[in-house]
Amino acid sequence: MRGDEIKGAAAFVLFLVLTVLSLFGFLLFAVLLIAAGILIFLGFYVYIRLKLWWAKRHPPKVLEGPEDYV
Predict the structure, then answer these.
(1) What pTM value is reported for the model?
(2) CA distances from 49 to 25, 41, 42, 53, 61 (A)
């Protein structure tokens, strides 16, 4: 009877450890996905801001005559 109790306790502890590791693993994965999403969003935001800034600082050339097309 004593051996069955030890096996049951060991199984319970193993199950508890696997559950906690799985839970924290999924939470860590979710945090990493959220962080990656924020970094991608910030990257696109900076890209758009720089592109708009560049267009404002360097407006397109106004073509006036045939010499401008050469």
Answers:
(1) 0.59
(2) 36, 12, 10, 6, 21
